[in-house]
From TrEMBL:
It is a single-pass membrane protein. It comes from the Eukaryota. This is Leucine-rich repeat-containing N-terminal plant-type domain-containing protein. Its main location: membrane. Residues 42-78 form the Leucine-rich repeat-containing N-terminal plant-type domain. GO terms for cellular component: membrane. Residues 1-26 form the signal peptide. Keywords: Glycoprotein, Leucine-rich repeat, Membrane, Repeat, Signal, Transmembrane, Transmembrane helix. It comes from Nymphaea colorata (pocket water lily). It is found in: Membrane.
Length: 286
């Protein structure tokens, strides 16, 4: 009897889980890819993250243990009404180590902020597993990375901040398809190639900084169509050609920085005449 009862129990549990699965989807609460992931998975992902932190001088992660809920661990925020992690903010904690690839199991993650820490190595994260990501801050670390192609699967991303790392390669064209982007800051890396003309598709973009890299060729005139742009900086690159007049028709612009390039020509005679006060940096007339 015990032998025949066990398969029946398993069948019942399977049917029950299938029913739950259908109900959740029917209510439109979460995509099916998330159903199989649980808060246990989130906790495991955090412990994996902690295991690769080699220095924690301020004992920030000392309460990352089973004595309290992981939603109460330092830097961790869970969603209201759930035990799923929506934000991991460990900025300015002087943490050192590499980043665990198991962070992809935080499938409800919206904010990842590791700014001003000492992480290094490759960024081995499949961002297609983090489709709800909105803000990615990894500035002022020592990540040696290409901008991951898998970021193209993060349609909600609004902020991409990779300031002062060791990022290399070209800026990918696909960033221009992430239409929620408001803030792109790639300042102080080793990026090469050209400024993607696809940035002109980003109608919500307010802040674009690709300064202090190794970009070359011209500044696309199409960028003058980004009407919400308040900051545009391409300083300290190897850009050539002339400044597009379209940039001076951006009514919201507050800061334009072109210094230390190989740009030629002169500023438009009416530059700024019809715009609010702004700052123009380092454009030498020839």
């Amino acid at each position: 009897m015990a032998t025949t009862g066990r398969p029946q129990l398993l069948a019942f549990l399977f049917c029950l889980s299938s029913f739950t699965f259908i109900v959740v989807l029917g209510q439109g609460e979460v995509p099916s890819a998330f159903v199989s992931l649980s808060n246990v998975t989130d906790q495991f992902a955090l412990l994996s993250f902690k295991s690769l932190v080699t220095k924690d001088p301020h004992n920030v992660l000392s309460n990352w243990n089973s004595n309290i809920s992981f939603c109460d661990w330092t830097g961790v925020s869970c969603g209201r009404g759930s035990q799923r992690i929506v934000a991991l903010n460990l900025s300015e904690k002087a943490l050192e180590g590499t980043l665990s690839p198991y962070i992809i199991n935080l499938s409800f993650l919206q904010v990842l902020d590791l700014s001003n820490d000492c992480f290094h190595g490759q960024l081995l994260i499949d961002f297609s597993r983090l489709p709800l990501l909105e803000n990615l801050f990894i500035c002022k670390n020592n990540f040696e990375v290409l901008i991951p192609q898998t970021l193209s699967h993060c349609p909600r991303i609004q902020v991409l901040s990779v300031i002062e790392n060791e990022s290399y390669g070209s800026i990918p064209e696909f960033l221009g398809s992430l239409l929620e982007l408001k803030h792109i800051n790639l300042y102080g890396n080793k990026l090469t190639g050209t400024i993607p003309v696809t940035f002109a598709n980003l109608s919500k973009l307010e802040h674009l900084n690709v300064g202090q890299n190794h970009m070359h060729r011209n500044i696309p005139s199409e960028l003058g169509s980004i009407t919400r742009l308040t900051l545009f900086s391409v300083e300290m690159n190897n850009l050539t050609g002339t400044l597009p007049k379209s940039l001076f028709n951006l009514y919201a612009i507050e800061t334009l920085s072109f210094m230390t390039n190989k740009l030629t020509g002169h500023l438009p005679n009416d530059a700024g005449c019809f715009l609010p006060p702004r700052t123009l940096y380092g454009y030498k007339q020839f």
